[in-house]
Amino acid sequence: MTDLPSPPLVTGPRDMALLAFERLPESHRFDGDDAPLGYVLIVLRHEGHTLMTYQRKRACWELPGGGIEPGERARAAAVRELREETGQTVPEDALRFVGYAKTALGPTRHVLRGAVYAAQARSRAPFTANDEVSAIHWRADGSPLPEGLVQTVDEYVVGLCEEG
């Protein structure tokens, strides 16, 4: 179990804690670090709404995102994950890098970093449920989501994207 700083910036359901948000250059490397870069998150907005996904496995509303495949750049992973999970497409050069989220995940408190990107969608593509995501919701600022848990860590990250 990793010792966590006290207190985390925010905690959420499913044993998640946001330990830090680092506004480092996108080119920063975490080689040999105790919290390697392992995932991406995308804050996609369209006409004042933020895209949220209902993740089947965790039964929770979250931002789109996911793991970075071996040899894949984080920016490319963000484009791929967004398309795979939601059907939305954004070119790599339309993504704005915001920073790195450092999170403790699950009951083992495994610590990873995630590259966080923000983008504006030109339109809303149709959604088809898939193995990972059962629903999407374009959330107006401050409005409630449909029934179910909400990953408060991701909500906090949305606010950080608007600050930067």
Can you give a write-up of this model?
- It is a single chain.
- With 164 residues, the chain is α+β, with helices and mostly antiparallel strands.
- It has a single domain (10-163), classed as Nucleoside Triphosphate Pyrophosphohydrolase, CATH 3.90.79.
- Helix content is 15%, strand content 39%.
- The chain is built from 2 helices and 10 strands, in the order E-E-E-E-E-E-H-E-E-E-E-H.
- The protein has helices at residues 74-86, 152-163, and strands at 10-12, 16-22, 37-46, 49-55, 60-62, 65-67, 96-105, 110-120, 133-140, 149-150.
- Strands 1, 2, 3, 4, 5, 6, 7, 8, 9 and 10 form a 10-stranded mixed β-sheet that branches.
- Strand 1 and strand 2 form a beta hairpin.
- The chain is globular and about 40 Å long.
- The N and C termini lie far apart (32 Å).
